[in-house]
Amino acid sequence: MAFISNSKIFPANHKTIFVLDHTPYFGISCESPIEFEFLKSRAPGFIPFNPISKSLWTCSVESAIEYCRIVWDLFPQGKLIRFFASDTVAHIMNTWSPSQQNLNHVMNGMSLMGVPPPIRQTQQSKDYSVVHGLRAAIEALGECTDLQFEKRKADVNAKLINKCRIICITSARDNDSMKRLQEIFNNCLHAHNKAALNSDTYLPIDHCHLVIIHTFPVNIESQVTQQPARNISSLLTTEVYPIKAPQISNKLSSLILQHYELASTTVTGIPMKEEQNASSSANYDVEIFHSKEAHTAILKGNTADSLAIRTVKEGLEYETVTLKWCTPRGCASSELQNCTSMYRITPVEVNSRPSLCLINFLLNGRSVMLEMPRKAGGKITSHLLASHGGEIFIHTLCTARSVLEDPPSISEGCGGRVTDYRITDFGLLIQQNRLLPIKSNYVGGLPSSIPKVKARLGRHTKYWPLTISSTLIFNLKNYIDPLPSIITKEKITDEEMVQCKQVIYNLIALESKHEPLHLANMGQRSKGQKREEQYKIMWNELETLLKNNCHSETHKMVYNCLIECHKFNSDESDKVELDQALRELDQMAKSDSDVRASVIRATTDSPMSPPPLASIASPMARNNQNRAGGIYATKRSLYDIFMAQDKSKTRLDFAGRTGDNVAKLYPNLKIENDRGPREMETE
Fold first, then answer.
1. Whole-angstrom Cα distance, residue 519 to residue 419?
2. Membrane spanning segments where (predicted)?
3. What are phi and psi of 534, to 5 degrees?
4. Of 271, 259, 286, nearest in space to 394 by CA
């Protein structure tokens, strides 16, 4: 557990070191000219300024400083960055002290360093190398930061996880030179860890992430190829990027999103007045960086909507989420909003006019809503920009229902506009399964009640219809109470078992008297439901309830009582089904009057009619062999019933169907007499 907590407190971005190559090679021009003349109208004889070009050293310093500005804007504490410049020796720009973790201190150190010395023939013998800076960086990574020192002081035996990152901006001849540089760094890393084992001052390095940016002028082709992240050893992971000098800042902007788990948001459609014409305005875009957690809610939503707002930044390697400016309507930053999270922001182009206008607008106490368009149409307000205490934050707004709003209507469920939920019964279910806290003094002497509570809740919900229309027995409380409340108990007494059986006997008596069932919740029978169908549904549902609650022997006795009282024996069931089948066959074939009489008998003795009282035997008199299969026998098709009947009781079969007898069809068709050919007769 201590190892995991230390990993979270001291991640790899807790310590970051920039090692900048200050050798004479970095004093050359990057060959990317910048026009220094901005005047549009030129007088005769005017001599324009020549274009200027930055050196490799200037491009490296500017890019590294911008990297630090973004980190320190978003993380005022806990993310430490140091700078080393390397030529013949390593030059230290700042320490891990919080007082030196600022841009002014670093810029002052850079100005004292100056530009790299020019390349001269007399300086070729001097030992100019970036290795000096890398060795000093490894030694600095072994030093304790204030946070690590406090952790070690609090627990001397605690294992501190010392992960770190080094970003080296240098230049190499080819891949072999880059490989040798990585091997030298790996050897120095292992040597430091061996020395740190016997030291009370330095920490061993658990893992180091080395990012090497190989830079070169625009007009030169690089002999170093890009190398993705790979493990040199268990302590070292390296990656190499060949980048032209003017593009170093773009590459570091992509890397910083990975190193600090950041995301990009482009605020589009910001109206701003033109400097030349104050009466007109134009729309601008401003890109900001912040924690990627601010996008979690919208990116986990509708896939089509999230894809529509995600685009790859032009000329860069990362994605940005585009959100539209929503015109402020008197909403000040002091007003409360329903937010789920809040993170600091910083503009990507801090010196651009649109960024300055947006930052000043927010620092003046105003707030900006950001809208996310939906692909299906419409839009939703997803984020809010506002300042608090001189710092600007992005707030993730709740896009779902809030607890501060009125509760949703019961008819707005996921399954459509359902209006007949068993709300009263559900409230009773909650009351029956409430949990009460136990005082800590008695917890130790009592067994755990969680399994018991779960078992109780499982019994109560094993069969619990959600809506009034999906159940019948729970709408017949005046007929079946107290059976439902008794049958869900873990154990029932003999007296309660007698009460359950009495409910079953009362229902049998009602069915034998052909009395309809009056529903308590609906007031009357549902439309189009006959009495016979009502009883059939009631018996099936009652069996389901009892069958799912056979928790003990007494529960099973109640279930067996129901099965014994309402299982039609096979002879009676077959007779009723046979009569019904004959009725349907005779209606289709339109048979003679004798068969029609059987149809009348079948009609009066309907298969769904309740059995007479004489046919209901006592529960103990029934045969247990007839219990299987439920209350009603499984329905058979018309063909099965027809094939199962006794053929001896029906009419004789046609002679031409059996044996070898072949009956000739229409034998007297061609016989003639005095009146001519005989008419066709059918029998």
1. 18
2. none
3. -60, -50
4. 286
Task: Tell me how far apart the alpha carbons of residues 431 and 453 are, in angstroms, rounded to a whole number.
Answer: 13
Q: For 80-97, how does the pLDDT look when each residue is reduced to its tens digit (9 = 90+)?
A: 999 999 999 999 999 999
What are the helix (H) ranges across 268-372? 296-299, 303-309, 353-363
CA–CA separation, 658 vs 666, rounded Å?
A: 19
Pairing state of beta strands 207-216 and 227-231?
Answer: unpaired
Going 356 to 361 to 367 to 373, the CA torsion angle's sign is: negative
Residues 6+ positions from 226 with CB-CB distance below 8 Å: 240, 241, 242
Which 3 state secondary structure label does DSSP give 674?
Answer: coil
Does one domain contain both 202 and 314? no
Distance, in Å, from the CA atom of 620 to the CA atom of 613, rounded to the nearest integer, reads: 16
For 682, the 3-state DSSP assignment is: coil
List residues bridging with 393 in a β-sheet. Answer: 344, 386
**List of E strands, 391-520:** 391-397
Instruction: Name 68's bridge partners.
Output: none
**For the packed helices 56-74 and 248-259, what is the interaxial angle rounded to 10 degrees?**
30
Q: Identify the pLDDT of residue 568.
A: 41
Domain end call among 260, 284, 299 = 260
- With beta carbons less than 8 A apart as the criterion, state whether 353 and 365 touch: no
| 557 contacts 622 by C-beta, under 8 angstroms | no
Asked whether the CA dihedral 666, 671, 677, 678 is positive or negative, the reply is negative
pLDDT at 73: 93
Q: What's 358's domain CATH number?
A: 2.40.290
Per the CB < 8 A criterion, the answer to whether 192 and 139 are in contact is: yes
* Claim to verify: residue 74 and residue 195 sit in the same structural domain: yes
How is 346-412 classified by DSSP, letter by letter? EESSTTSHHHHHHHHHHHTTB-EEEEEE-TTS-EEEEEEEEEETTEEEEEEE--S--TTSPPPPTT-
Regarding beta strands 15-21 and 163-170, do their DSSP bridges make them parallel or antiparallel, or are they unpaired?
parallel
Burial class for 494, CB neighbours closer than 10 Å (0-12, 13-18, 19+): exposed
Q: Which of 340, 345, 348 is nearest to 362 (CA)?
A: 345
Confidence (pLDDT) at 630: 42
Residue 148 belongs to domain spanning: 15-35+51-260
Q: For residues 138-166, give the mean pLDDT.
A: 86
What is the C-alpha separation between 544 and 559, in angstroms, rounded?
10
**418 compared with 131, residue with greater pLDDT:** 131
